[in-house]
Amino acid sequence: MWEFFYAPDQWAYGIYKAVETWGQSVGIPVSLIQLLLLIPVAVILLAFIFLNVMFLTWMERKVAGHIQVRYGPMRTGWHGLMQPVADAVKLLFKEPIALPGVDRFIYFLSPMFMFTMAMMVFIVIPFSPGWVVASLDYGLLFIFAVSGMSSFFVLAGGWCSNNKWSLLGAMRTVAQVIGYEVPLILSALGVALLAGSLNLTDIVASQKGMWNIVKQPLGFILFLMASLAEANRGPFDLEEAEQELVGGYLTEYSGMPFAMFYLGEYTHLLASGAIITTLFLGGWQGPLLPPIIWFLIKCYAVIFIFMWIRWTYPRIRVDHLLQFNWKFVLPLALVNLGITSLVLVL
Amino acid sequence: MFTAGAMLATLLAVDLGDCLKGVNFLFEFGKIAFFTLVGVLLVGLIYFLNWFLSPKTVPTQLRNTAYECGDPPVGSGWARYHLSYYPFALLFVVFDVEAIFLFAWVAAFKPLGLFGLIEVMIFILMLVAGLVYAWRKGVLKWV
Amino acid sequence: MALVNYLVIGAIVFSIGAFGVLTRRNVVFVFMCLELMFTGVGITLVAFSRYFAPDLAVGYIFVIFMLTVAAAETALGLGIFLAVQRKHGTISTDEFSNLKG
Amino acid sequence: MNWWLLTPEIIITVTALLVLVLDFMLPESNRREGLGTVGVLGLVVALLASFRLLGVEDNLFNGVFVVDRLAVAFKIIFISGALLVYLLIISSLERLPGRRGEFFWLVLTALLGMMVTAASRELVTIYVGIELISLSFYALVGYRRDDKNATEAALKYFILGSFAIGLWLYGAALVYGLTGQTDLIEIAKMVDSGSSPLLLIGLFLLIVGFGFKMGLAPFHMWVPDAYQEAPTPVTAFLAVGSKAAAFAVFVRVMLTGFHSLAATWAPWIGFAAAVTMTWGNAAALRQTNIKRMLAYSGVAHAGYALVGVASASAVGSQAVTFYLFAYLFATLGAFAVVVAFSNLTGSDLISDYAGLHWRNPFLALGLTLCLLSLAGIPPLAGFFGKFYLFWGAIQQGGWLLVLVIIAAINSAISLYYYVNVIRVMYFIQPSVEQPVTSPLLVNITLVVALAGIALAAFYFQPVLAGIELAGL
Amino acid sequence: MRYSGIYELELGEGNNIMPWLSALLWLPLLGTLLICFMPRQQEKLIKGTALVVALIDLFLSLVLYFSYDNRLAGFQFVEKATWMSSPAISYHLGVDGISLPMVILTTFIFVCAILASWNIKHRTKEYFLLVTILETAVLGVFVSLDLFLFFLFWELELIPMYFLIGIWGSERREYAAMKFIIYTMAGSAFMLAGFLAMYFLAPSPTFDLVDLSRAGFAPQVQALLFILLFLGFGVKLPVFPFHTWLPDAHVEAPAPISMILAGVLLKMGGYGLIRINAGLLPEGLKAFIPLLATLAVINVIYGAYVAMGQKDLKTMIAMSSVSHMGFVLLPIAALTPVALNGAVLEMFAHGTVSGLLFFLIGLLYERAHTRQIPELEGGLVAQIPRMGVAFIMASMASLGLPGMSQFIAEFMVFLGSYPVLQVPTIIAVFGIVLTAGYMLWMVKRIFYGPLNPRWSHLTDMGQVYEYIPLVVLMGLTIVVGVYPALITDWSHPSLMALLR
């Protein structure tokens, strides 16, 4: 058990070796074993995501409640802890209605991929030493690639609904997401410069003595803001500004497709927390406690900040949002990158 | 079963031989393909459950109406969106694509040194000039 | 997986794109087919770069440049397309016959 | 690294950025003069810098960027062309709608693309250069974006241009894959040691891609539309710059990279040349719009210039360059007149040129000389250009003799439509007596162009000496 | 200065330091420049300038003629300067006994043509501008010893000619001008190809005629070059299938320009054939002798036959030119010295005679405003006796009356050709008969018989500028007719050298 917490890489390698030895004794080729081992990895990863996301939905409601001086869900379980389960069961039994004017194929497809893409981020995140599903050399690039994909599915979902509000919400979302993607990438590049690598494992390792938040304070703030916008969190939650747009791109969605979008969004939130943790907060590093615990603590701290901001600040107007990005955040990100590289060279 | 697995393995990765020792580029991407598949299958499964468990109602005229704040819908659902989105998309393309080169530069930052820095700075300067141009030309104004 | 498989995939994607550009009447589809052509080229380049010249990353660099420029190109093309669409009120290339001879 | 080898490019880049910035710094009232002056100054300095590079044989970035006689000669062609185009733009800008600053800027980026293209010896750089030209021109052609035909022409140009680039890229990918190189010199080494059918396919696709850019038949469909609908100064630049750049790089790719396959590709090129010149001339015969006529004649001229490539020799490459020089001055001169005329009358119809001699004898004479030069009448530059092309081709002998005869017959046919314009200007009394005024800048352009045409005979020798292709 | 001429002979005494040929060549262009800067209204001044320039040129050419040493065959008054080194092109001028008669013919005809244009009212300035350019171009063709230079002048001649026909011509002028220019251009395109081929096939690549004459091309090569060049020169001469531009151009051009066309421009073709095709490519020529002879005979007979059927005076004379040019082609096929001498003489004679005829037709047209023989029919000699006599004399000269230059020329052609080409020569002789037929018939219809009352208002010649061309051209015809040695003695040595 100690090994599991404090030396997870050795633990995992031990299991791998054991299975491989067993497989060779039975006569299964090594490559097939490696492939088969991916299945438990996937199960664990998915379980991790599902648990956390369920917890997050509950947490959001609790945080919102307490900020607004009320309790939030209280009846299901201890302090309403079972509320997400109840929601899930309820959604499972609801009829998935697709209206006649809807492009059915895309209608069902976009939430599916929305979730999948959000999930993909986790396969390059090092949760603990050695605990990374795929240690890509261009991990950072991969993260931006898949998280950028989500805007496609938002747009597709809004477009296929055949509803003016949906389309408008989707358009806004896309304008916002792609706009903030640029400073997001630029401020992350500062971190990559410090680490000299785009591999997330290396980035975590490079923060051994000092977290990047210290070296890159401006980058951290910019990244945080851009992440908020990327995840469509308040004050940048224009896509579903229910006062203006009914439900944004989700207007026509119901039942499981709706739940999948919902799930996707919270997965995205979790991913944002994980990315910030990895890039700026030293990843799993920390004293005494096991790495995975450290990772979760930092991640939840970030997510709590997200929620705090969402329920504290009013929503920004769409033009302000875009101008804020192009005229303020982006130049600052460029400046940050320039300073970082200059300091590194000199 | 083994044959199928081996085929799948071949499809996903070229050579799984010693992937734990060094990172096998294609195998890592094979994992990505695998997880995409997993995600899609999982959601598909949930869809199936939902379809299996949910009640089926008979569609009526009212139920088939798009939701527009309770009013009967007017005009096409595919409304024309505002052209103002377009310049932003263009700007995004410019800067996002710029990032490709920056990634490459970051990956080779140390060997390139000052020379690379100057080149990238010139590159960024030109992009900034473009941004300033767009700004001053009023592209960033939301009309 | 052998190089030739990638090449065949690249060629197929490229051909679909080229065929689409020549036969499609909807400008948006034409643009998409152009992108397919570029993608086919990209696959070919990357495959070659991986198999034939693993030391030289020229193929990858080529692809990056290609993607970049293709992005700019598409952006510009969409701009032109929007202008055309506003003036002509159609997106079918069949309708564009003001200029002939 | 000899950074000063890059001086013309750097100057142009800086000028472009300066124009871009000045566009919103200057007040609306003297923006046109301001941008024009800055641009012209930058171009003049770049031209001087290019002259300084004459005779230099060097390269930068491991041969990606070369400075040799061919490259510098083409740079001089491009910069002087851009300079004249700038004068035309300044004098016809009132007639153009929209944000005028972009106009100045896009011309400079196109110019930069041309310079990079002519100086690159490596496929990636060539690609970037070509695209820089193309993108600038897509925007420039569709510049009158409230005009139905202009946008349509731009869209056609865009789709065909992108398609061509797609084909070109696939060809480049095959060539890269089969030789493992993108540097033309390295490619040449690999090609020398043997070729394969797939390599020939790649080469063919490269040729087709270039063919689109050069406006060779049957890939010239975009040419007349784009020429007709673009603002006239842009048409002039498109006709000389874009085409010349494509030729510059084409010559380099074919002669530096694939010289050992010349026996294979030269007949293709020869065939394309014959088809192009015949098609271009046949189509030009029917035109009533002078811009369209010049467009098709440009197609035909691409065919003639291709004869030089088909000869696959150093002389051939020199001939192409010299021919493009002659073509540049004649075409720019002709377009200067077209600009002056359409600024006043708003018409591009040849029939409206009736009696131009009475309305402005200078413009009529200038256009006449330019057209005669295009037709290849001695002692004007066009004749020397053609002569040298044929000279280079006949030197190679064999089937090129047939090609030369086809070209010669074609140039006789082409005389018909050139002379037709002259006929209209001199033989037919004008229906309107109102004189056509030509702005000073147009006159300057025309005088420079005429000087270029007329003095070619005397500077034939030095110019030729300046444009040898390195490494042949 | 000793110069080894084209036929390896030594220079005559006429050679000296003065660049006579350059002066002769560029003087008209100087006139062009002068006229350029003259105000449009000063028509007298413009005409005067053109005339003075042409007269000085005439004087210069006569100086050349008399100081030419006709005992020698080589080129004289040679000037040579390098123009370009690659391709090797030089500014190389010189005259010999073949080109000198042509030069003299040119200067004479131009003086006459300028006088004949004295009545030009429409756009006088441009007219004389173009005529002076034309003179330089034509002279350039005859004095160039570098093929490139030759070609340059050959092409330069097209543009002024195009405008002269196109602006000052009659109803179908534009069509005629266009046809003229396209035909000639097409022909010269082949010619250029031929020159270029010659350049490269020579042992040491050169455009120099003198060097090329020593090149010794292989017979097959010569045959190929011959075809290319023949297409170029044949169009100009004109040879039968390519002659269709000629009636149009002659008919539509104004009278002075028709004079120049018939008088000089056609000779450029003949000169080229003799100088280059016969001189440089004799082996190639031998392969084509039957073809050439056939074409020559067709030219003679067909030209005369078509002329016979014409109603328009100008078309008739134009077709008679086609017919007479057959007599230039026949000696080239025969390749004997006497015949070629006849050809040179025929060119000179036809130049003067046809120039005269077109001049007279111009005068007649100015007065009667028609050229249709049926309309003019009837006893004009009574109304306009001086013009009538001149016309009849010119016609007699044209049909080869003994004592006139063309008789001697045609006689020499037959004499020289018969031993080699019996049958063609005999058929060609019938051409003379046909010519006599239509000329006499034309003269009879127009000038004899009772006076047609319609023409009772016609006035006779009166002005000095109308007499001078008449006297000069008629004088040349008779003087050369009586004493042909004036031309033949000059051309004979050069032709002998050419045929060696």
What does this structure look like?
The complex is a heteropentamer of chains A (346), B (143), C (101), D (472) and E (500). Chain A has 346 residues and is an all-alpha fold. Chain A is 72% helix and 0% strand. Chain A has 2 domains: 93 residues, no CATH class; 251 residues, no CATH class. In chain A, helix 2 runs antiparallel to helix 3, helix 7 packs parallel to helix 14 and helix 10 packs antiparallel against helix 14. The radius of gyration of chain A is 21 Å and the shape is globular. Chain B is mainly alpha-helical. Chain B is built from 4 helices and no strands. Chain B starts with a helix and ends in a 7-residue tail after the last helix. With 472 residues, chain D is mainly α. Chain D has one domain. Chain D has a two-stranded antiparallel sheet with strand order 1-2. In chain D, helix 3 packs parallel to helix 13 and helix 3 runs antiparallel to helix 18. The mean pLDDT of chain D is 84. Chain E is mainly alpha-helical. Chain E has a domain of 207 residues. Chain E is 72% helix and 3% strand. Chain E has a two-stranded antiparallel ribbon. In chain E, strand 1 and strand 2 form a beta hairpin. Classes of the chains: A mainly alpha (346), B mainly alpha (143), C mainly alpha (101), D mainly alpha (472), E mainly alpha (500). Chains in contact: A-B, B-C, B-D, C-D, D-E. At the C-D interface, helix 1, helix 2 and helix 3 of C face helix 5, helix 6 and helix 9 of D.
